[in-house]
C-alpha cells in the first residue's frame, strides 16, 4: 500500500501522515511526478533527496486547457502522481493522450462557447467543494457574476454552501433536487440566500428556472448537488442539443 496526498489543510495532512506512519504506509506528495528518486517517505519519514528525473507537475503543461486554473488541475496532478508512484515507467506521452480524451461530467462542465456567456455545471455539494468552485471561477472569470441555479439536499451544510456561493451570484434561482424527498425546499433555500444577503427567487419547476437562466443572457452556473446536475444536464441535452457542447476548451 502507498498513499498519495493532495494539497490539503496542514492539520489534516499531519493527522493522515501520522496514521500512515503507524501503519507503515509510505506517503508521497501529490504535487510532483515521482521519478528515480523516492519523493515519498518510508513509514512517514520524509526523504529529503530530490533526484527526480521528471519535472515537477507545476512546470509541465500537459493538462488540457479546460482543466487549468481550476480545482481539477490539482485533482489531475494528484492522479498523475499516484499513477507514477505505482508505475514510474509510464511514458509522459501516454499521460498526455489519456488526459486529452478525459472528461469529468458535472465538474466545471462548460456547455457554451465564447463569446456567449458561460453556462457551467458543477457538482459541488458541500462547503469545501463550493469554496474550490468559487476559487476556480474567480481565476477563470475574474469579477464575473452568475445566475446560479441552485439545488441542495437538506442534509448538507447548506448555510455554509450558500455563504460561499452568494459571493459570485448575481441572483440565485432556487430549485429542488428532482425525484428525492431529501431535497431542501426551494422556498427554504431561497430564504437562506436572502438571509445571507443575496438575491433569490424560488421556482417550483427546475426546468422553468433553467430556461429563464439560459434566456437571461447572463453567465449561468448550476451547482449544489450531483443529483441536480444530472437532471439539469439531461434537460439541457434534450432541449438544446444543437446549441450546447460539452467540455469546451
Descriptive terms for the model:
alpha/beta, 249 residues, two-stranded parallel sheet, 13% strand, six-stranded mixed beta sheet, single chain
SSE layout and pairings?
Layout lengths: L2 E3 L4 H14 L3 E3 L11 E2 L2 E2 L24 H16 L5 H10 L7 E2 L8 E3 L5 H14 L5 E5 L7 H8 L3 E6 L11 H10 L4 E3 L3 H10 L4 E4 L2 H14 L10
Parallel strand pairs: 1-2, 6-10, 7-8, 7-10, 8-9
Antiparallel strand pairs: 3-4, 5-6
Helix pairs in contact: 4-5
Count of alpha and pi helical runs: 8
The low-confidence runs, each spanning 5 or more residues with pLDDT under 50, are 34-60
Q: Shape, please?
A: globular
Major beta sheet, strand line-up: 5-6-10-7-8-9
The helicity comes to 25-40%
Average pLDDT, to the nearest integer? Answer: 82
Helix/strand order: EHEEEHHEEHEHEHEHEH
Proportion of beta-strand residues? 5-15%
What is the alpha-carbon Rg in Å?
Answer: 21 Å
- Biggest sheet character: 6 strands, mixed
The first-to-last residue Cα distance is 36 Å
Strand element count: 10
| Classification by helices and strands | alpha/beta
Folded structure, characterized:
With 249 residues, the protein is an alpha/beta fold. The chain has eight helices and ten strands. The strands form three sheets. Strands 5-6-10-7-8-9 form a six-stranded mixed sheet. The chain has a two-stranded parallel sheet with strand order 1-2. Helix 6 links the parallel strand 8 and strand 9. Helix 4 packs parallel to helix 5. The longest helix has 16 residues.
Amino acid at each position: 500500500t502507498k498513499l498519495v496526498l493532495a494539497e490539503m489543510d496542514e492539520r489534516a495532512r499531519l493527522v493522515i501522515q501520522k496514521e500512515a506512519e503507524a501503519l507503515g504506509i509510505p506517503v508521497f506528495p501529490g504535487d510532483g511526478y515521482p521519478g528515480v528518486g523516492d519523493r515519498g517517505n518510508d513509514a512517514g519519514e520524509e526523504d529529503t533527496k530530490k533526484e527526480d528525473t521528471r519535472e515537477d507537475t507545476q512546470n509541465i503543461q500537459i493538462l488540457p486547457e479546460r482543466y487549468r486554473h481550476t480545482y481539477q488541475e490539482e485533482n489531475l496532478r494528484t492522479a498523475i502522481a499516484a499513477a507514477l508512484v505505482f508505475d514510474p515507467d509510464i511514458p509522459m506521452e501516454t499521460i498526455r493522450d489519456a488526459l486529452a480524451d478525459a472528461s469529468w461530467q458535472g465538474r466545471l462542465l462548460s456547455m457554451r462557447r465564447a463569446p456567449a456567456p458561460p453556462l457551467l455545471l458543477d457538482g459541488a455539494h458541500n462547503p469545501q467543494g463550493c469554496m474550490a468552485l468559487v476559487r476556480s471561477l474567480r481565476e477563470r472569470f475574474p469579477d464575473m457574476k452568475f445566475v446560479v441555479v441552485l439545488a441542495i439536499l437538506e442534509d448538507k451544510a447548506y448555510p455554509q454552501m450558500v455563504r460561499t456561493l452568494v459571493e459570485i451570484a448575481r441572483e440565485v434561482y432556487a430549485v429542488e433536487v428532482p425525484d428525492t424527498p431529501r431535497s431542501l425546499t426551494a422556498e427554504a433555500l431561497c430564504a437562506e440566500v436572502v438571509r445571507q444577503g443575496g438575491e433569490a427567487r424560488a421556482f417550483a419547476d427546475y426546468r422553468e428556472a433553467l430556461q429563464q437562466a439560459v434566456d437571461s443572457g447572463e453567465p449561468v452556473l448550476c451547482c449544489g448537488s450531483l443529483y441536480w446536475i444530472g437532471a439539469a444536464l439531461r434537460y439541457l441535452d434534450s432541449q438544446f442539443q444543437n446549441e450546447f457542447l460539452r467540455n469546451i476548451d
